[in-house]
């Protein structure tokens, strides 16, 4: 199948079509805008950029952009109120390619995390959550530092039930509660340090999508290959993929690594 901007435009309009939404195409810039007809708020995406990603990731590229647009539109239209709901603020992990603005001029509150990931902040609304943007922060009169502090306190309070599996002499621990914050547990330094005391080999961590965290006790080279295969499989299956790369946890810090079949990992440099 050959993909071009015209086909991509049709696919996105079909996937994103809902009552009250309008689509505008800018032929000169090859951009598609998805807008809430009532509020006039919307998101504009470059079709050429999505087509380029499609040639690398196929349908996964479309799934990602649809999710990003849906989440951005929800952030604009929802009426979240932070005050009084401090216990509902949590950090969420996203890939480094995730948009930094809900819409033009309205950046999300986020922090750089690793070369592969960023930390965004969310207000939990029960069945979903709204990413916190600068307009919401201003409306509530909060300082960004207060939101970060509350979010990190709340993520430390989340339970961390682990399932354990052993493959080729290597032990793998899985956290998969499906509460939306499984990957966020990687920000709980106390939890990671506690896990490191149980590790007898090398400690590696994967957060392939938002609803899983894998901690590996690597005791031989095969363990690296198994972890890489697990991470890629979860990454491909995740609703909100984060990264297929894994991390070494050394001296309290996370270091992204490449794992190239049968070889020991190579640390990733640069961003």
Query: Which residues sit in consecutive blocks of at least 5 with pLDDT less than 50?
Result: none
Straight-line N-to-C gap? 32 Å
Q: Mind telling me the C-alpha Rg? A: 20 Å
State the helical fraction: 25-40%
How would you characterize the largest beta sheet? Answer: 7 strands, antiparallel
Instruction: Encode the helix/strand succession as letters.
Output: HEEEHHEEEEEEHHEEHEEHEEE
Average pLDDT works out at: 86
Spatial order of the strands in the main sheet?
10-11-13-12-14-15-16
Shape: globular
Query: Treating each run of at least 4 consecutive H or I residues as one helix, how many helices?
Result: 7
Question: How are the secondary structure elements laid out?
Answer:
Blueprint (H helix, E strand, L loop, with lengths): L4 H12 L4 E6 L4 E6 L5 E5 H11 L1 H19 L11 E7 L5 E3 L2 E2 L2 E3 L4 E8 L4 E3 L2 H7 L3 H13 L6 E5 L2 E6 L13 H8 L5 E5 L6 E6 L2 H17 L8 E5 L2 E6 L7 E2 L4
Antiparallel strand pairs: 1-2, 2-3, 4-8, 5-6, 7-8, 8-9, 10-11, 11-13, 12-13, 12-14, 14-15, 15-16
């Amino acid at each position: 199948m050959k993909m071009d901007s015209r086909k991509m435009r049709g696919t996105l309009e079909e996937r994103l079509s809902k009552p009250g939404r309008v689509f505008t195409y800018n032929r000169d810039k090859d951009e598609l805008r998805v807008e809430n007809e009532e509020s006039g708020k919307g998101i504009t995406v470059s079709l050429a950029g999505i087509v380029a990603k499609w040639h690398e990731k196929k349908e996964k590229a479309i799934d990602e952009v649809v999710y990003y647009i849906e989440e951005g539109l929800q952030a604009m239209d929802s009426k979240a109120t932070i005050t009084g709901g401090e216990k509902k603020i949590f950090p969420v992990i996203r890939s480094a390619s995730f948009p930094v603005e809900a819409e033009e001029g309205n950046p999300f509150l986020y922090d750089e995390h690793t070369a592969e990931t960023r930390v965004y902040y969310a207000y939990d609304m029960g069945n979903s959550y709204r990413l916190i943007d600068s307009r919401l922060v201003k409306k509530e009169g909060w300082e960004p530092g207060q939101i970060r502090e509350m979010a990190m306190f709340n993520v430390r309070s989340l339970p961390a039930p682990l399932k354990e599996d052993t493959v080729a002499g290597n032990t793998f621990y899985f956290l998969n509660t499906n509460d939306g914050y499984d990957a966020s547990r990687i920000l709980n330094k106390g939890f990671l340090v506690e896990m490191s005391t149980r590790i007898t080999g090398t400690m590696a961590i994967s957060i392939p999508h938002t609803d899983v965290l894998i901690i590996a006790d690597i005791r031989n080279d095969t363990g690296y290959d198994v972890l890489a295969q697990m991470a890629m499989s979860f990454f491909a299956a995740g609703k909100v993929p984060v990264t297929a790369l894994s991390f070494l946890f050394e001296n309290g810090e996370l270091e992204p690594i490449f794992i190239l079949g049968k070889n020991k990992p190579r640390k990733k440099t640069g961003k």
